Amino acid sequence: MNFLLTSAGISNPSLHTALVDLLGKPISEASALCIPTGIYPFPGGPVMAHRFISGTTTSPMCELGWKSLGVLELTALPSIDTAYWTAAVQEADALLVNGGDVHYLYRWMRESGLADLLPSLRETVYVGISAGSMVTAPVFGETYDNPEQPFVIEHGLGLVDFAVLPHLDHEDHPESSAANVKRMAAEVPVPTYGIDDQTAIKGVDGTIEVVSEGQWRLFTPTT
Q1: What is the rounded CA–CA span in Å between residue 195 and residue 197?
Q2: Domains of the chain, first to last
Q3: pLDDT 10s digits, 153-202
Q4: Quick one: which of 54, 147, 158, 218 has the fewest CB in 10 Å?
Q5: Which helix (H) or strand (E) covers residue 142, if one does?
């Protein structure tokens, strides 16, 4: 599958062009399934999930004018006939994966069975926001308020061979200052892209391209 891994959705014309290029057709002719699951552990999670689905967040994704748009709720999949939801995923042109808690999202990617299906989706475009982008990595790092363990590294889905740290230098994300991102990336054992909200990593058949109208940095492991 191909990837457009964003920090904050399709936030500028360059990212919009990149998405259309990956789809191979206008968004108005493409079908998508949105995955809100990662946002639920946050305070106000149900409200934020609705805003994502209804296209009223500050991270453009569901409101882009898709031909059809469905909701794929990962926590519901284990109780649904596998053939039904698998068919829906296989028929979609794009999967729109919301941000939130990357550990929670990873858990439900696995428990739902979606993680096992993703590598077989050769023509599908995976579009991530924040944690939805981070979870694709072989490993991901996440910050927490626990002073004894402020930065945690866990195994990811391994759909790509690099890691993503989003919201670079965003005023609402002090944990993602350039200095902090550099420090965190030094602990991650794979190449790591620090990207701001105007940037995305585009992946086509293993070829990686940075699409940006903002700022980004690539950190490579020293060991």
Answers
A1: 7
A2: 2-160 (3.40.50.880)
A3: 788 999 999 999 998 888 877 777 788 778 888 888 889 999 999 999 99
A4: 147
A5: strand 139-143
Tell me the two tokens of residue 119.
């590598």
Could you write out the DSSP letters of every residue in 29-88?
Answer: G-EEEEE-GGGTTSTTHHHHHHHHHHT-SSS-STTS--SEEEE--GGGGGGS-HHHHHHH
Residue listed under structure tokens 């944690």: 131
pLDDT digits (tens, 9 = 90+) for 69-100: 999 999 999 999 999 999 999 999 999 999 99
102, 112, 85, 115: which is closest to 39 by C-alpha? 102
Distance CA 188, CA 118 (A): 24
Residues 7, 173: contact at Cβ < 8 Å?
Answer: no
Token digits for 103? 């550990």
Residues for the chain: how many in total? 223
Longest Cα separation, the chain:
49
CB 105 within 8 A of CB 38: yes
Paired tokens of 129: 């926001």
